[in-house]
Q: What sequence folds into this?
């Protein structure tokens, strides 16, 4: 399981019919409404080869809403790392809930304070116990993720959007 930090959701500005392949998404024709995109959905989705698809014959198209700001930055963390980061930011939930939303400026400031005050992350070595493997965490991991989250918060603030995670 993982937690993704990103900009709070806003209504889509347009819709496309595409698979997840980046070139296919870039080549897709935007539709003004969800209904128009649904009307353009192929009758035989498994028989359609989308321009730019990296896996022709294996990808299935679906309707994708486009964010008005274009590509929205995301930072994805494993649950345990997300718990640690949220704790350092003072946003840990007592019940361990890994969902939330905070004003971008507040989140940015929390990242800056954590970067200034948190000791350097020494990391955690990988451990294997039979078939169970904990991959550990490299040195500096916390500071690297805090820097990425700070950049996300700056982007969100410029767009007038909150930072959310789930």
A:
């Amino acid at each position: 399981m993982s937690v993704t930090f990103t900009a709070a959701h806003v209504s889509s500005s347009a819709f496309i019919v595409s698979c997840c392949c980046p070139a296919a998404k870039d080549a897709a024709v935007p539709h003004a409404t969800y209904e128009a995109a649904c009307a353009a959905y192929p009758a035989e989705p498994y028989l359609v080869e989308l321009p730019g698809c990296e896996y022709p014959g294996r990808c299935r198209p679906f309707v994708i809403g486009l964010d008005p700001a274009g590509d929205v930055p995301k930072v994805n963390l494993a649950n345990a790392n997300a718990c640690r980061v949220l704790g350092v930011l003072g946003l840990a939930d007592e019940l361990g809930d890994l969902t939330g939303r905070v004003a971008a400026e507040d989140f940015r400031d929390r990242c800056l304070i954590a970067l200034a005050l948190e000791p350097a992350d020494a990391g955690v070595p990988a451990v294997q116990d039979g078939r169970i493997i904990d991959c550990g965490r490299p040195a500096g991991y916390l500071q690297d993720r805090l820097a990425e989250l700070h950049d996300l918060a700056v982007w969100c603030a410029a767009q007038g959007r909150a930072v959310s995670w789930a």
Summary: Strands lie at 2-7, 14-18, 62-66, 74-78, 100-102, 127-129, 132-134, 163-165. The two ends are 11 Å apart (CA to CA). Residues 14-66 form one domain. The longest helix spans residues 141-159.
